[in-house]
Amino acid sequence: MAVASSLKVLTSDKSKHKLNGSTKGKQLSAWEIVKISRHPQRPVFQDYLHSVFTDFVELHGDRYYGDDKAIVGGFATIGGIKVMIIGHNKGKNTEQHVERNFGMAKPEGYRKALRLMKLAQRFNLPVVTIIDTPGAFPGLEAEERGQAESIAKNITEMAALEVPVISLVIGEGGSGGALGIGVGDKIIMLSNAIYSVISPEGCASILWRDAKFAPDAAQALNLTAERLLHHEVIDEIIKEPGEGAHTDYEKIADAVKKSLVKNLKTLSAIPVDILLDKRFQKYSAMGKFAGF
Amino acid sequence: MAVASSLKVLTSDKSKHKLNGSTKGKQLSAWEIVKISRHPQRPVFQDYLHSVFTDFVELHGDRYYGDDKAIVGGFATIGGIKVMIIGHNKGKNTEQHVERNFGMAKPEGYRKALRLMKLAQRFNLPVVTIIDTPGAFPGLEAEERGQAESIAKNITEMAALEVPVISLVIGEGGSGGALGIGVGDKIIMLSNAIYSVISPEGCASILWRDAKFAPDAAQALNLTAERLLHHEVIDEIIKEPGEGAHTDYEKIADAVKKSLVKNLKTLSAIPVDILLDKRFQKYSAMGKFAGF
Amino acid sequence: MAWYSKAITEKKQQIKSLWVRCKKCQSHIWQEEWHNNLNVCPHCNYHGSITAYERINLIFDEGTFNELFASISPVDSLGFNDLKGSYKDKIEANKKKSGISEAVITGEGKINGIRAVAAVMDFRFLGGSLGSGTGEKILQAANFAFEQEIPYIVFSASGGARMQEGVLSLMQMAKTCAGVARLNKKDIPFISVLTNPTTGGVTASYAMMGDLNISEPGAVIGFAGRRVIEQTIGEKLPDDFQTAEYLLEHGFIDSIVTRKDMKKYLSQVLSYYNR
Amino acid sequence: MAWYSKAITEKKQQIKSLWVRCKKCQSHIWQEEWHNNLNVCPHCNYHGSITAYERINLIFDEGTFNELFASISPVDSLGFNDLKGSYKDKIEANKKKSGISEAVITGEGKINGIRAVAAVMDFRFLGGSLGSGTGEKILQAANFAFEQEIPYIVFSASGGARMQEGVLSLMQMAKTCAGVARLNKKDIPFISVLTNPTTGGVTASYAMMGDLNISEPGAVIGFAGRRVIEQTIGEKLPDDFQTAEYLLEHGFIDSIVTRKDMKKYLSQVLSYYNR
Ligand SMILES: [Zn+2]
Ligand SMILES: [Zn+2]
């Protein structure tokens, strides 16, 4: 139900998504940020592909079963730096949403992503992943072909990938479907992006017994960039212009480019054994608990 | 058509397959050997699994799509030596033939085989592959899911597998479908097994324009163990008892066990870098040509 | 009358508590028989839930299991409150109810003489959900196996990630898999035993990453929930969907092993580790 | 009359030779236009066959290609005879007809300034079949790339293994893949370009093992033959079965690139090799 709800928002191109008045200078609620993160005019992966990167060469296929259009990847250049870029692509209109399954990948999508990461390792290219998905596709065939296995394998292999990895959440970071391409040395979020273990609607349905409590769930889940930086889950926030990234495509592209180039330079200077050790330490330190 | 013909022979349990008189002490024609290699009473992989190996633990699945019963594999012990055993399993009666698709594997079969070989490498176990197939399954879905890719990948990965590999052809060594689990440090054949680039029927259909010239094609193809030893494609022949392996299950089991144990001991004594170098040299030397 | 009625109620409850009703075939089984049969239905082979310590007793040689990292327990780092109250209170209630302090017990011991490290999940504790403490224990145990260079076995039983810890819970998937990745690199066996149920974020992390993935019969194993999928595709799913048998057929499980054979099976496959 | 008739016949043949008929859309195209368009149909984009040297001229910077291992040629080691005569005679006839001595040309050169080793198959020579000499050249070129640590590109055009060499031909699949395995280990790029047709044992070995698998539009790429499959499953196959476009959809091809864009594309992707 979680996914279904978020889709409804995503597909209603014509709905207004008007936030209550101007958000400028005001502290937005978690739920308001959820709505911005799903705004139908919000720039998606293919926008950044054109505004931030050049020389994109798309590479297709998982070499097992298919070519999942919900995840797009290939060679690209950013500020003179050559990288492997991989991201969820929701598409920009209803037709594209359907073609790209709203950015909800199937096993063949995750397996394509992993193949390209391994190719990046062979070519010695840093990997940039762009996260924007309501979640992995919850379908019969996806389960049959190993949705869980494909995500698990990506997470495991990314932990040991011998090139720098930067993960940028540009919209929705939906649970395992996001993490399946999200194990980066740096995790960066746009200021109105979200990253959550479950959609607010899904969480509300389970814990509040009604999806209409999604705003409460959104608040409780600490899914905003600001909260996640506080909890040391992410490393950096890119401030969005005006009322959100959708209000100024150029400015957000500039900010994204600046951040990626800076981080690529920093990470590329680190010897690979130290990089891998740091990555292991980074994920080892995730979470809070008592004892020990 | 090649496969279809050989299937007809395999499935006709009730047909006599009587060879022209006793073969004892007589030089058999290539075609007579083809018929013995496909004899319905000829021991198959599951027979050797019980007569030669102990402690078999079957492992299932390719972790991508399915569990192909045309290829069976798992841990097993032979003469006190622990190994990973992988082989085509044709089955022993019509019901089993159908269940196991006559030993004609699909991509998921080859991918399971590769997964088990990689597992053997992790566990540091030698690999024994048992070859007995008319060929890889020529079906629509098999092509769609990458029959060619799965065989290609196995061949490539086997060339670099960091444990000893022994390949034993017990019946039909059918082209790429055989080679897909056949890149061994030692290639051994039973004396009435065959190994061919194409089935005699298929070759005859193409080059003689009629499958009835299969006996001529069989002769021309040099597909018998004796010819292949002569051409330095294989390393050893295990002599079958009486009129063929089907006439004495115990004797052939003894001979197979003796050969495998001997070769496993020899190969296990070789340091892995030398083993890999020898394997590379072995396959580099395959074939005959002019010049250079 | 009041006294009489009360006595009957008590008697009824007493009788009830002596019987266990099988969740699959609905048979009533004497509690003692149920227990002696390792919480497995003698009629339909349904594998009922068992506690982590019960499983440890079944798998490890007597007196060989040393618990490790036992002091780790959850904290309510987000101050999470839902309809039923605070996560903080839930933690305390679950500790009290189960007598353990996290959804997994970790330690090392011997299985028919073979040393192994294990993490055994316990569904009673917050539905076996993967929280920060759970992930920490599973990683610490992996690190212990890594340092000692001995095989690692995780027995999963989990509803998935622990919502009440938000993304901190999601990140436990990456944290535990980072531990598995190090074992992979060192060629140390990692065996995943999936028991009923293993779903969501646990399936999509370490539970699917075994060199061998073993399951108990009939266990439900999946990523997305059955109901969510039915809503997405708009049709009923087959009955055996997401069962161990279904996953075996689809290539994700090496072998289905009954509870009573599990110890022997594990020691048998571990005996093939030759480094 | 006889003279007159002969003159007409000659004229007809002359005209015929000035036109090429597209195998796909059946259009007639002026030979010069066909040639200038790189043997690609200007109406339907059908990519016709080209010779190995023509392809080398299209891909490599002028004057940079040095042919290697050119002296290797087939021998009839089995004494193979079929209905149409001996393999030995076929070899000689094919050498004469094509002017080359094996089904592949190997060498090194520069692609927009980037050094690369290439093996370019030629369908005219025994249908581009993979014989011992073919395999030897493809392996030698791989070894050259391995030693020089420069990328390796194979352009395939082949009906599969060369039956007339029996299992010696089959073993060329293992031999060539052993070369690819060494490149993999050293992280040297291997790019496979699949052109029409690439089938059988060539597809089931190096041609599918590219770090990138690139194809020309419409190329037929498959393992089993269309007819064999139709006989096995007892139904007609879809029209686009085993085309490059079909394989892209099924996940086995990275990109479909037209002949005129191929040089630029290859230099572009090679520019991403960063070792
Ligand atoms: Zn029952
Ligand atoms: Zn045309």
Give an account of the 3D structure.
The complex is a heterotetramer, with two copies of chain A (292 residues) and two copies of chain C (275 residues). By secondary structure, chain A is of the alpha/beta class. Chain A has helices spanning 2-11, 30-37, 45-51, 94-99, 107-123, 140-144, 147-159, 175-179, 200-208, 214-221, 225-230, 249-268, 272-284; strands spanning 54-58, 71-78, 81-88, 127-133, 165-174, 186-190, 194-196, 236-238, 289-290. In chain A, 43% of the residues lie in helices and 17% in strands. The longest helix of chain A is centred in the C-terminal third of the chain and has 20 residues, at 249-268. The radius of gyration of chain A is 18 Å and the shape is globular. Chain C is globular. Chain C has two domains: 1-46, no CATH class; 50-273, 2-enoyl-CoA Hydratase, Chain A, domain 1 (Alpha-Beta Complex). Chain C starts with a helix and ends in a 5-residue tail after the last helix. Chain C is an alpha/beta fold. In chain C, the strands form three sheets. In chain C, strands 3, 7, 8, 9, 10, 11, 12 and 13 form an eight-stranded mixed beta sheet that branches. Chain C has a two-stranded antiparallel sheet with strand order 1-2. In chain C, strands 5-6 form a two-stranded antiparallel ribbon. Chain C has ten helices and 13 strands. In chain C, helix 5 runs parallel beside helix 6. At the A-C interface, helix 1, helix 6, helix 7, helix 8 and helix 9 of A face strand 4, strand 5, helix 5, helix 6 and helix 7 of C. Strand 9 (289-290) of chain A pairs antiparallel with strand 4 of chain C, so a sheet runs across the interface. The complex binds zinc ion (2 copies).
